[in-house]
Structures are given as C-alpha cells and as structure tokens.
Design a protein that fits this description.
250 residues; mainly beta; 4-stranded antiparallel sheet; 3-stranded antiparallel sheet; 3 helices; 28% strand; globular; RNA ligase 1
Length: 250
Amino acid sequence: MRRLGSVQRKMPCVFVTEVKEEPSTKREHQPFKVLATETISHKALDADIYSAIPTEKVDGTCCYVTTYKEFFWNIEEDFKPVPECWIPAKEIEQLNGNPMPDENGHIPGWVPVEKNNKQYCWHSSVVNYEFEIALVLKHHSDDPGLLEISAVPLSDLLEQTLELIGTNINGNPYGLGSKKHPLHLLIPHGAFQVRNLPTLKHSDLLSWFEGCREGKIEGIVWHCNDGCLIKVMAENSGVLSFYILKTKWH
C-alpha cells in the first residue's frame, strides 16, 4: 500500500456537523457536543471521499518526525504564547510569513521532544536518541494478519506523523503494559486499513460502530487521493461526533 497522508492540520469531519447543547461524554467540562448530521460535507465530496482509503483512527497522541533546530518562529501578540522552538504544522496557511488560524480558530503546531524533559517522558521512552531508532507497531513483514514491534531508524520515519499509544496515554484504551512495567509504542498514521467498511451513510456507519467487532475503534480516517484527510469519530454512546481539539487558538 502506498504511503498515506501525514497529519499536518486539523482533520474535517466526513459529515456536516452541528452543535448540541449537552455535556460532552469525552471532554470533561465541555458543555456541548459537536455531532455529525446525515449530510456528507462538501470537503469530503471535493476530496473524492468515495475513492479514499479508510484507515483506523488510533486513540493516542500525535507525533511528528523531522530534523530539529532548523526552524525559528514568532507568534503575534494576539495568539497564546507557545513554547520555544514551536513550529506550525505544514499545511497551515500563512499570510506575510505568519501562520493563520483555520476555520475553527486553531493553529496546530509541533514542539521538539528532548530526552531530558520530564513532561515528554513517555514520548522519549519510545526513542533511543543515541542510536536514533524508535519502537514502532506495524503489520508483520511476512504475515499482514499479524502485528510486530520493530526498532525503526528515525531516518526512515522522517517527515511522517505517528500516534503514540501506551500505558500512560489517553487512559490506555489498548491495555498495554502496567503501572510497574509501562509500555509505549508509535503507530504511523494510516497503518491499519479498515476492511469491509459499510456504505458512506450516517445510519450504516453508526450501525457498524455499534454492532460489529471491527467497529470497536475510536474512529475512521479516509486518506484521499489529493492528500486530504477526512475523519469521523464514535463516542462511547454510539453517536457519531467530530471533536475540536484544543491546540493554539486566536
């Protein structure tokens, strides 16, 4: 399978969304939900969603492999301060050299993970900085039906984005490791293709999420031919939803 898209901007929902005034079941202290309607969005149609490759949306935290200390960035005073060495995600639009917020007011970006920074200790646990390798979960090279953990050179992952999962990430939905023996791994975005997906209808997708073993995932990301990424997520309640992640906003 061809190398699929990297996550360099907020992914839009495959359906048109609407706000419902009731507490979110996933985000504490958020008094509303952003729910999917039954109408496929114009962005999804423009990206030829019907020809896209559906993949599992892994429940972790997003990471990006690139060379370090090549960038310098200043944020205008009307944006929240960002850490030193912050760089904007590649697909963020810029005006006069300044990153511009997307339609939701976000400016996603990256901060480097340094091995002595305790704030990012679980990120650092999957990387050997001396040998420049990372622990990556992927399909077995000889049997695609199996998964394997491999030590992959960082040079092979350059400019890719990956999801960090494990014991201390997002409540550990995959049951990896233990408090005494934590385990964390990286998964390249688009690594796990979704098979036998139903038709692209709200009711059919909702039934798939609720009623079959393959549907017990956080969501789906479609990788379109033009590089666009479109997603849909499933709440524990079974309602198809699109969540606006809090990164940097105006």
